[in-house]
Input
Amino acid sequence: MQAKKFYGQNFITDKNLILKIISLLQNDGETLVIEIGPGRGALTGELVKQFKKVVAIEIDKDLEEILKAKITADNFELIIADVLEIDWSELLQKYHGQFKNIVLISNTPYYITSEILFKAFRNSEYLQQAILMFQKEVAERVCAELGNSKYNNLSIVSNFYAKPKYEFTVKKNMFNPVPAVDSAIISLDFTNNHKSEIDDTEAFIALVRKLFNNRRKTILNNVKSTLPDHDAAQLLNEVGIVSTLRPENISLEEYINLYNCVIKK
Ligand code: SAM
Output
């Protein structure tokens, strides 16, 4: 079967790489793993050996027979569906009562990387951890810390929902077919997050996004255009943010303080 480019199919071919990725997952013997895009079962085959249960979601119907023939273990469940069409909270709630921990793993189809990331963020209350393969550039942004040239709003949002870590780079020749760019594995620890510091996470994320609309402008100018009803200079002064900084020079904690100050007004 030919790999389908439009489904982002780049299959892992290296057994050591598979074991190295899976070793990053937390497993207390009672853990459920959800895998997005099992493909031909490269990771799945090993996951069913190590975990209590594996639920895999694959869009490509042509892979159904291949997967079912390869993985016959009782602890394997295959859902043939588009992961973006699935109701994640319904699925996760169903398993939440049955399993102590739920972890997510995916060699992600790169055309929907950010959609998958945000689905995980928005349902992170049910998840302990995610181990995800991204394009290297995206992985670097998710995991970048303040002061790093890759730090941007994606880094801030990721650090808000989880503790992200850049685990290791994966060279493009580890896949078949070989993709255009190198990849990287990241881990997200959802138990380490800042959600309790904010009343409305969606409103907070929306504010951060808007403040990055003109990332070359100062935070003062971005606050002026995003929050026209506020005295921008006074607001920044109140939360101790230097008004001449650019949005990418401001920490997550400072954005949280800014948001909390705005909603009090
Ligand atoms: N896990 C396999 C591996 O590592 O060899 C395959 C990874 S491949 C990069 C991405 C997989 O995601 C493919 O099997 C593809 O068919 C599947 N996929 C693509 N879009 C999807 C979607 N919207 N929902 C579920 N699976 C999808």
Summary: The chain has a mean pLDDT of 97. The first helix runs from residue 15 to 22. Residues 7-12, 36-39, 42-43, 57-60, 82-84, 107, 109, 112 surround S-adenosylmethionine (CB under 6 Å).
